[in-house]
Design a protein that fits this description.
Blueprint (H helix, E strand, L loop, with lengths): L3 H19 L5 H21 L8 H13 L4 H21 L23 H9 L6 H16 L3 H6 L5 E2 L4 E5 L5 E5 L2 H14 L22 H15 L10 H12 L4 H8 L7 H5 L3 H10 L4
Antiparallel strand pairs: 1-2, 2-3
């Protein structure tokens, strides 16, 4: 049985996770990721005889040395320390713990995101050419991912009411349930129309609002998307090591910047700005669509 101090710390971690979901709008998966990293801290403190809170400079340095010995990647170390910093700020602001020592984030090796070149994107699209329902789904999936720059979770969560073929816009729910609208044009719109007309009716089971479905008719999950991407990537001759769920989004951004799109417009399309409200959606004009038409290689 854990000592009272550790049980109290576990309860504070649970309260922190509830706070992330209820007050900060984070998803339960994000909150659980924080909790997992914080449990590593608690386990370390228990094993090494440190008090879990408040942390001291000695305990924080020892924690870093432990992660180094265990061969943790720099990104993993940074994520765990960032989780610890967030938890401590929560204790200061919400639990009245007073001024606490915040650990310094370890340096992170800066890496460029892996992207596909335009020829590889074309081969990936071509790998899904066919008339079977899954071919039509995968083609539409890739065209929307690359044509609209969606995150994997946004792509899987896309709903039928989010598609506006007449206005040529797509409504996207991103991190923190924020909404934005992006251009829905060219091959992306055409491939989705074909999927909805000739592919989706063969897979759907009952009332399901999601645009993309698995072969069993349930909403497509991130894991399903990852499997589709790997299978089609192998057929397209793209190395598995170069594929990951956000590869289409990162390729979208890189190719648009390379073709001259300004950073501000791209930021809006990627959803990196503040929450896009309904009012912005109502006043969305042709400026972003014209930018898309001018620069996107598959518009």
């Amino acid at each position: 049985m854990r000592e009272p101090g550790f049980r109290a710390a576990e309860e504070l971690v649970d309260r922190f996770c509830d706070y992330l979901v209820a007050e900060r709008g984070r998803s339960p998966l994000t909150a659980e990721s924080y909790a997992s990293d914080l449990r590593r801290w608690l386990e370390f403190c228990e094993e090494e005889g440190f008090a879990p809170q408040p942390p001291t400079e000695d305990s924080l340095n020892a924690f870093r040395r432990r992660m180094e010995r265990e061969g943790c990647a720099r990104a993993t170390q940074q994520r765990r320390v960032a989780a610890l910093r967030s938890w401590l700020r929560f204790l200061e602001l919400e639990e009245g713990e007073g001024q606490l020592v915040l650990p310094v984030l370890p340096g992170r090796t800066k890496r460029e995101p892996r992207v596909l070149n335009e020829a590889e994107v074309k081969r990936l699209m071509d790998s899904a050419r066919g008339e079977k329902p899954l071919d039509l789904r995968d083609r539409a999936l890739f065209e929307v991912g690359y044509g609209c720059g969606l995150r994997a979770s946004e792509l899987c969560g896309l709903r039928l009411p989010d598609l506006d073929f007449e206005a040529r816009m797509l409504r996207v729910r991103g991190k923190g349930d924020k909404e934005r609208v992006v251009p829905f044009l060219g091959e992306a719109a055409r491939s989705v129309r074909v999927w909805l007309d000739a592919g989706r009716p063969h897979l759907v089971r009952g009332a399901c609002p999601q645009v993309f479905l698995s072969r069993s008719g349930r909403p497509l999950s991130r894991q399903d998307l990852w499997r589709v991407l790997r299978r089609r990537g192998a057929a397209a001759g793209v190395a598995r090591s170069r594929l990951y769920p956000h590869i289409l989004r990162h390729s979208f951004a890189t190719h648009l910047l390379a073709r001259g799109m300004d950073m501000r417009t791209l930021q809006e399309m990627l959803g990196h700005s503040s929450l896009v409200t309904t009012q912005v959606y109502a006043h969305f004009d042709g400026e972003m669509r014209s930018e898309y038409d001018r620069f996107h290689p598959r518009a």
